[in-house]
Specification:
It contains 28 helices and 23 strands. Helix 18 (438-448) runs antiparallel to helix 19 (454-475), helix 23 (570-590) packs parallel to helix 24 and helix 27 (702-713) crosses helix 28. The longest helix is centred in the middle third of the chain and has 22 residues, at 454-475. Bound molecules: glutamine and zinc ion (ZN).
């Protein structure tokens, strides 16, 4: 049986692309050197896939920043303000991705959004009325040729027209409908040119199909593809979907002239029912995604083969369930992880082997029980140790409804807290982390490696905290933070202090651009070993008379940014973590920390892609898990939360129901739209919509911040507005951080004078 991969990681198994790109940004290497690193990385991925005998190997899955941005560039969807900078092609691309501030001008980056329900972010392309949609195939052709020279005829992977049109932001008067024909024509031209170049297979990725689709969506999709597919010439076209099932459009899709259709059988188990119910067109290839591209557990061959058996009447290819972009490169990088754990995982390279083994077992399915790969797989899976903690199980079982309720109600608490803290109007604060400079990282690393003692490590952090407090006092911020210098990552740090967690050394996954995350693994039942953050917060507080916020990561985010278990429910895991974080909240409170921020940066992220699943499959337990964390504190203790990205317009009631006292969130990169919805929904929680974008090194001016605040005041009650950046400052440098915060405080002061 043939095998297929939807996409391969590209950041480099030692994050080579990240480092090279960052050096390029700093001017330490030139374009040619960056391109050379990229080429080496593509080669690595292709050869790995070739070695594993993968039949359908992708190209154009590589990206210098993001694939949706690549698709925008492919069609010349480049806003004028970036073109006007007059930069090179590559620098124009990076200017769209991360903004530009230099001698050629000053422009913000395009907005960034989470890629469906993953922790990967794509760049939201903008199309203007003046944009002339034309094709620039150079990237696609160059990469195809590169692979060809390695003896690999790749399938060319491109964001499909429907998904692309859906993700585009229309900034002018022309909308989706006005572009359907324009893009259909360009995609036809694309197929024609590929056909002329003898490129045989194109895969159009249409993950948008796993969302709830309206009749109009279905009609639009059909319209585009009917025309496209009747012009495909000699190219075979695969429709690839992932992250769920395509129940709304399945019947339509199997009747269109695709040569292959890719379905995610892991996340979209309902796809199997659809196949059973409506059948599958016999002449098409069915790409069955049974090797999970989103999680790192070893494939259970027995289960996968059962699925493949059900599909045996069709022309099936075994595939990954989505791009392998969402898993780390290879277990070979993990030297420290003990075998008893490691043997249960498969990263990208190992998943290639799984595809190969599954295909071999399947080809001789009658004798599977004698197959070494099969036997080995089943025997490993039967041995899983260190999983159950009876005490934790019991505590979760004993949670009752009252444990989710905080007393007294919000309005009562708001009064008590206003009295107690007596903060100025429009209080200023930050989201928690301060720049993680080289020295800060070195301190942690040296300690980890045993190069410095615990005392030395702690002493350094204390000095940094003192510096940070002094800086915030100088700047004039109202609610201070300790700076999070002890944390590598907001989830890994907590994971390290919880039982039930495992860690990797190099299992990096791209989050956006050059930013990677290293999600820890939830292996078994979770509990808190000892107080985690208390000493740092208490120390910070001892240095100032201003309030200092304790800083924790919330249970839903800890869960969402870890590789989750598959043997218990997400709800069960979330509640276990919530109990552990609740212990920490109560310890902070007992030690005099009276403002505590529980970050739920990733709450929105795992919201099911279909609305009908939102409550039952997610919000019902996710909001409860958060409430559990804060439900036992005193009325005068102020609970903050923070969420990255303001894309929660549609779940505002649920956010309000988290019952936090204050919420800060991203807003600067997405036009403050959310504020209208807050008002419409009578949002009670006090809010700090971020006034500037911390993902970019640009320093916002006082006026820019002041104007943003004025706009906010049109929508937000003046007694509820907080002033803060978008997110933590850890990725920024010291200089721009200080300058930006000085301007922020200045803008807040100006506002106080004028209102
Ligand atoms: N408190 C965290 C920080 O400031 C929050 C980070 C985040 O939201 N991603 O770094
Ligand atoms: Zn954030």
């Amino acid at each position: 049986m043939k095998t297929s991969v939807i996409g391969f990681p590209r950041i480099g198994k030692d994050r080579e692309l990240k480092f090279a790109t960052e050096k390029y940004f700093k001017g330490e290497i030139n374009e040619e050197e960056l391109l050379c690193t990229a080429k080496t990385l593509r080669k690595y991925g292709w050869l790995k896939q070739k070695d594993a005998g993968i039949s359908y190997i992708p190209s154009n899955d590589f990206s210098y920043y993001d694939n949706v941005l690549d698709t925008a560039v492919l069609f010349n969807v480049i806003p004028k303000r970036y073109k006007d900078l007059g930069l090179s092609k590559l620098d124009t691309y990076f200017a769209m991705a991360r903004g530009y501030q230099g001698d050629k001008g000053n422009v913000k980056a395009l907005a960034m959004k989470k890629w469906f329900d993953t922790n990967y972010h794509y760049i939201v392309p903008e199309i203007e009325d003046e944009t002339k949609v034309t094709l620039d195939l150079s990237k696609i052709l160059d990469e195809y040729k590169e692979a060809y020279e390695l003896g690999i005829e790749t399938k060319v992977v491109i964001t499909g027209p429907f998904t692309f049109l859906k993700l585009l932001k229309y900034t002018g008067t022309k909308k989706f409908e006005d572009y359907i024909q324009i893009f259909t024509n360009e995609y036809i031209r694309l197929l024609k040119e590929l056909s002329e170049k003898n490129i045989g297979i194109v895969e159009f990725d249409e993950p948008y199909l796993v969302r709830d689709l309206s009749d109009k969506d279905i009609a639009d999709f059909s319209l585009i593809y009917k025309e496209l597919l009747s012009n495909k010439e000699n190219v075979k076209v695969i429709l690839q979907t992932y992250f769920g099932d395509i129940r709304d459009i399945y019947e339509t899709v199997i009747n269109l002239d695709f040569d292959g259709i890719g379905l995610d059988i892991i996340k979209g188990d309902k796809n199997l029912e659809l196949i059973e119910k409506y059948g599958f067109a016999g002449d098409k290839v069915l790409f069955a995604g049974v090797v999970n591209g989103k999680n790192i557990w070893k494939n259970n061959y027995k289960k996968s083969l059962e699925i493949l058996e059900k599909l045996k009447d069709f022309n099936v290819v075994i595939s990954t369930s989505c791009s392998l972009l969402h898993v780390p490169y290879t277990l070979e990088n993990e030297v420290k992880l003990e075998d008893k754990y490691k043997s249960h995982f498969a990263f990208a390279n190992e998943k290639l082997i799984e595809l190969k083994e599954l295909s071999q077992i399947y080809d001789d399915i009658e004798n599977k029980d004698e197959n070494e790969f099969y036997k080995n797989n089943q025997s490993i899976l039967s041995e899983r140790v260190d999983v159950v903690d009876e005490k934790v199980r019991e505590e979760v079982a004993n949670i009752c409804e009252a444990d989710y309720e905080r007393k007294p109600d919000f309005y009562e608490r708001e009064k008590i807290q206003k009295n107690k803290f007596n903060l100025p109007k429009f209080p200023t604060t930050t989201i928690g982390s301060f720049p993680q400079t080289k020295e800060v990282r070195k301190n942690r690393l040296d300690y980890k490696k045993g190069l410095i003692t615990k005392e030395e490590y702690e002493q350094f952090n204390k000095e940094k905290i003192a510096e940070c407090i002094k800086l915030q006092e100088e700047i004039g911020l109202d609610v201070l933070v300790h700076g999070e210098f002890e944390r590598n990552d907001m989830v890994e740090y907590f994971g390290e202090h919880l039982s039930g967690y495992l860690f990797t050394e190099k299992a990096w996954v791209q989050s956006y651009g050059t930013r990677c995350v290293k999600p820890p693994v939830i292996w078994g039942d979770v509990s808190r070993k000892e107080p985690i953050t208390v000493k740092w917060s208490v120390y910070a507080k001892s240095l100032t008379t201003k309030p200092v916020k304790g800083m924790l990561t919330g249970p839903v985010t800890i869960l969402n940014w870890s590789f989750p278990r598959e043997d218990i429910s997400l709800k069960e895991s979330a509640l276990q973590i919530a109990l552990a974080i609740r212990d920490e909240v109560l310890d902070l409170e007992a030690n005099g920390i009276d403002i505590i921020q529980v970050d739920e940066a990733a709450l929105r992220e795992k919201l099911p892609l279909r609305k009908s699943d939102w409550n039952e499959k997610y919000l019902d337990w996710a909001i409860k898990a958060f409430r559990l964390v804060g439900s036992k504190v005193k009325p005068e203790t102020q609970i903050h939360t923070h969420m990255c990205y303001s894309e929660f317009t549609d779940i505002i009631p649920a956010i309000d129901a988290m019952d936090a006292d204050v919420i800060t969130f991203e807003a600067s990169r997405s036009d403050l739209q959310i504020l209208d919805s807050l008002r419409e929904n009578n949002f009670k929680t006090e809010v700090g919509p971020g006034v500037y974008d911390i993902h970019s090194p640009r320093v916002p001016s006082v006026d820019e911040i002041y104007n943003a605040l004025e706009k906010m005041l049109e929508k937000v009650d003046e007694n509820k507005l907080w002033v803060n950046p978008d997110c933590g400052l850890k990725t920024r440098g010291d200089k721009e951080t200080k300058e930006s915060l000085v301007n922020l405080v200045e803008a807040a002061k100006k506002l106080r004078e004028n209102k």
